[in-house]
Amino acid sequence: MGVDLKDEFPVATLPAPGVMAVDWEERVDFDRLRHYRLERTRQQMKAAGVGALLLFETSNIRYTTSTNIGYWAFNKAERWAVVTPSGQPKVWDFGSAARAHRLQLPSLYDEKNSVAGNTGLQGAIGPKTELHKRAVGEILDWLREAGVEDEPLGVDVAETAMFLELQKAEVNIVDGQQIMMLAREIKNRDEIMLITQATAMVDAVYQDILEALKPGVRESDIVALAHARLFEMGSEFVEAINSIAGERCSPHPHVFSDRLIRPGDQAYFDIIHAFNGYRTCYYRTFGVGRATQSQRDAFKQSREWMDAAIDAVQVGNSTADIATTFPKAHEYGFENEMEAFGLQFGHGLGMGLHERPVVSRLNSMDDPIEIKVGQVFALETYAPASDGRSAARIEEEIVVTEHGPEVITLFPCEELMVANEY
């Protein structure tokens, strides 16, 4: 990019048109979205040489089947789906949810491919009921009907008891999670629009946070504010709000507390929520009332590392090119890259919080991934301050376009902003 962000601010060119469907503007085409996701999955199945995929992970199920029963079911392994080379996937769902899908999406689901299932509520129902054996039997019946019962079966993330039952049935199991990560890596225009809309909601929350930050406000109060504002704007799920201030900034604890924010604190936040299934991950750092030179220097360093990383996001480059712009762990106070993982960092965004590509010095040098049009990922930097307590955390979400990287996180982040400055 080579852009000096002090002279040129990020300007949105990718649309974030709103949370409703309208007849007078082309927005998200959900039929196109459903078709794209299923075909992407089948392309990767074919490339991997598997006959079908057995999916338990919540994001994988929604990506392939377009079914959703809310985040009560988030990774409980109590619903699953099978994707075969043709036809609509089959979903085994939690009790009455199976009937609900047949009512909500009658063009896709009927009594044959949306049925109830149960694998014992993670052991709460004892093994004497043989629920896992029954589930495997029904899965094998569906594979036989599709003519793929003798081909490898990709499985993503399942309970141990389920894997043991599949093993008893002599099913040839392969790693289905890698197949799904490859499928989900490249986003179509509808996915990008949903991610951009989700990000626009966070832009608004940061304006509210800037105005609310003052002594006496707790970290947890900011968490409550962000939840309320996001739900008002149409968020379907708030996964996490990191809210960190003062001496809790260094090292990053990754959890908020009831700490009172005080004059002169440095504070950073990460807002992770989902709109129509698609997530954000979006850090910003502020001073409260006033800021020291140490705090400003930390922010400047974090920004410089971020700008260098964005410059390396070029089609044809790899994640190793981005990772080399990050400092080594010992340069900012950590013993090794494993301990520092997640601070100088990049990760794909989509229906999951951590998708391909993952960018860090821990993995990218040994397993670089090519930068391609259609990838969407977040880049994160972290700089501890020389005062030993403060730190700056910045995160930008990037869409890789044919014209280069586009930053879609638009709340100002060129220099340290001080809330309610004295």
Annotation keywords:
six-stranded mixed sheet; 422 residues; single chain; 11 helices; disordered N terminus; Creatine Amidinohydrolase; 2 domains; alpha+beta; Creatine Amidinohydrolase, Chain A, domain 1; five-stranded mixed sheet
What is the subunit organization of this protein?
single chain
The CATH architecture of the largest domain can be named as Alpha-Beta Complex
Structural class: alpha+beta
Order of helices and strands: HEHEEHEHEHEHHHEEEEHHHEEEEEE
CATH homologous superfamily (4th level) name of the largest domain: Creatinase/methionine aminopeptidase superfamily
- Tell me the name of the CATH class of the largest domain: Alpha Beta
Overall morphology: globular
Low-confidence stretches: 1-7
Strand content: 15-25%
Q: What's the arrangement of strands in the largest beta sheet? A: 4-3-2-1-5-6
Helix percent band:
25-40%
Give a quick summary of the entry.
With 422 residues, the protein is an alpha+beta fold. It has helices at residues 30-48, 58-65, 97-104, 131-146, 160-168, 176-184, 189-212, 219-233, 293-311, 319-323, 337-340, and strands spanning 52-55, 80-83, 90-94, 114-117, 153-155, 173-175, 237-245, 266-275, 278-279, 282-288, 345-348, 355-359, 376-384, 391-401, 404-407, 417-419.
